[in-house]
Design brief:
Elements lengths: L7 H25 L6 H6 L1 E10 L9 E6 L5 E6 L5 E4 L5 E3 L8 E4 L1 H6 L9 E4 L6 E10 L4 E2 L17 E2 H11 L7 H6 L8
Antiparallel strand pairs: 1-8, 2-7, 3-6, 3-8, 4-5, 4-7, 9-10
Bound molecules: 2-oxoglutaric acid and fe (ii) ion.
2-oxoglutaric acid binds next to β1, β3, β7 and β8.
Length: about 200
C-alpha cells in the first residue's frame, strides 16, 4: 500500500504561497516594463521546481564553500533559509555581499531566463553559499522556469535599435539537454553561452 507523506499538505500550502509571490513579483516587473498585455500568456508558459537543501557545517579540514558561484537559469528564484546565513550575492561591480535575512523573509532573484525575456534589462546575479557558521543550514527554493516546448524570446517592445536582441530565441527543454550534457563552468552564464549574441560574461 502506498504511504501518504504526512507533510504533503504543508508542502503544498507552502509552495502555493511561494507560487503566489512569484506571480506577484513577475506582475510588478511586467507592469514596470509596460508588458502587462503579455503577462497571462507568460505566466501560463511556466513550470515550477521546488528544491529543499541542507548544508551541513564544514569540518575544519573542509572548504566552507557550500555551493559554488553560479547564476540560476530560472525566470525567478525565491529563496528561504533557516536562521543560518550563508547566501552571498555578487554585485554588478564584482563585490560579494552576504545576504542577512531573517527566517521570515524571502530573497527574490532574477534568473537568466528573465534576463533573456527582458532583453538584458533584468540582471541575473551570480550567487553562492558559504558555510561560515558551525550549524546546519536549511534552505528552500522555488524556481520558475520557461515551460519546455515554448520558445523563450523577449516581446518585440524590448528590442529596438538602442536595445538590439541579445539572445537567439531558444527552447528551454533543448537548453536543459545541452546544460545537462555540457555542464556550466563556475562563474559562467549557461544561457548566454548557449545562445547569447555577445561573448562577455556579464549580461
Ligand atoms: O541555498 C541557497 O540559499 C541557494 C541555493 C541556490 O542558489 C540554488 O539552488 O540555485
Ligand atoms: Fe542558485
Amino acid at each position: 500500500m502506498m504511504k501518504t507523506c504526512v507533510c504533503r499538505n504543508s508542502i503544498h500550502t507552502y509552495s502555493k504561497k511561494l507560487w503566489e509571490l512569484d506571480g506577484m513579483v513577475r506582475k510588478m516587473v511586467f507592469e514596470g516594463l509596460n508588458l502587462t498585455k503579455y503577462l497571462k500568456e507568460h505566466l501560463e508558459a511556466t513550470n515550477y521546481h521546488l528544491k529543499v537543501m541542507k548544508y551541513r557545517a564544514a569540518e575544519p579540514s573542509e572548504s566552507t564553500m557550500g555551493l559554488d558561484s553560479h547564476a540560476d537559469t530560472s525566470i525567478l528564484t525565491i529563496l528561504h533559509q533557516n536562521g543560518v546565513q550563508g547566501l552571498e550575492i555578487r554585485t554588478k561591480d564584482g563585490d560579494w555581499i552576504t545576504v542577512n535575512v531573517s527566517p521570515n523573509s524571502f530573497v527574490v532573484m532574477a534568473g537568466e531566463s528573465f534576463n533573456v525575456l527582458s532583453n538584458g534589462r533584468l540582471h541575473a546575479p551570480f550567487h553562492r553559499v558559504v558555510m561560515n557558521a558551525n550549524k546546519t543550514r536549511l534552505s528552500v527554493g522555488l524556481f520558475s522556469m520557461p515551460r519546455i516546448g515554448t520558445i523563450v524570446k523577449p516581446p518585440k517592445e524590448m528590442v529596438y535599435e538602442e536595445h538590439p536582441l541579445l539572445f537567439k530565441p531558444f527552447d528551454y527543454g533543448e537548453f536543459m539537454d545541452y546544460f545537462c550534457m555540457a555542464g556550466v563552468k563556475k562563474d559562467t552564464y549557461g544561457i548566454k553561452t548557449y545562445c547569447g549574441f555577445q561573448s562577455e560574461k556579464t549580461p
